[in-house]
Design brief:
Layout: H1 3-7, E1 19-22, H2 28-41, H3 51-58, H4 60-66, E2 68-73, E3 79-87, E4 100-108, H5 117-131, E5 136-142, H6 146-154, E6 158-159, E7 165-168, E8 171-179
Parallel strand pairs: 4-5
Antiparallel strand pairs: 1-2, 2-3, 3-4, 5-8, 6-8, 7-8
Length: 186
């Protein structure tokens, strides 16, 4: 959704729903810190060897140069969360194959959790995939991320166990996918 639609009074979002937009250059460091804080709050950076992943999460400027970083903001333009939209072949693609869109590093600020921010960001990824005419959206998730799994499944994602993978010993990433119905096929 464009920011101009919101300003013109044609905003179709339910009251209180966050606005999803592309991250602005002046917000890159803030988004990086929010992402690291969200992963830390979930205990995902407390294991040995996760320091380099924290650095990767923090480097939003690099991500924005190779992928699309979206943010969720409230009415005061406060950043509530972010997600990275990745196309196959990009440096951030872990799972995406030709024609697929992948999303990574979905993070919601602790104070904004439970208010639909993660769902809004995920729906925005689906909208981007439709705009890019991608037939499928994929993602990886740690086994321990049960709340995220419930969200993905509620939105129609299904497990894709044949594409599960391990980036490090004792780390299993579960693959999920959602096949989209293209306007061209309906």
């Amino acid at each position: 959704m464009s920011e101009s639609a919101c300003r013109s009074g044609t905003d179709p979002r339910p009251p209180g729903a966050p606005l999803i937009r592309v991250v602005r250059p002046g917000e890159l460091a803030e988004v990086g810190e929010l992402t690291v804080a969200a992963y830390q709050a979930d205990g995902l950076l407390s294991h040995e060897g996760t320091e380099s992943y924290a650095d990767e999460l923090r480097d939003t400027a690099h991500r924005a140069g190779h992928a699309e970083v979206l943010v969720a903001v409230d009415g005061a333009d406060t950043i509530l969360g972010s997600v990275t939209v990745v196309r196959a072949g990009s440096p951030y693609a872990e799972l995406a194959r030709d024609g697929e869109v992948e999303f990574r590093m979905l993070a919601v600020a602790e104070h904004a959790r439970g208010h639909g921010v993660g769902a809004a960001l995920t729906r925005a990824v689906l909208d981007r995939a439709v705009a890019l005419d991608a037939p499928r959206v994929v993602l990886c998730s740690l086994e321990s991320m049960k709340t995220a799994h419930r969200l993905y499944e509620r939105l129609g994602f299904r497990r894709l166990p044949e594409r599960d993978w391990s980036p490090a010993p004792d780390v299993l990433l579960l693959a999920y996918a959602l096949t989209l119905v293209s306007a061209h096929t309906s």
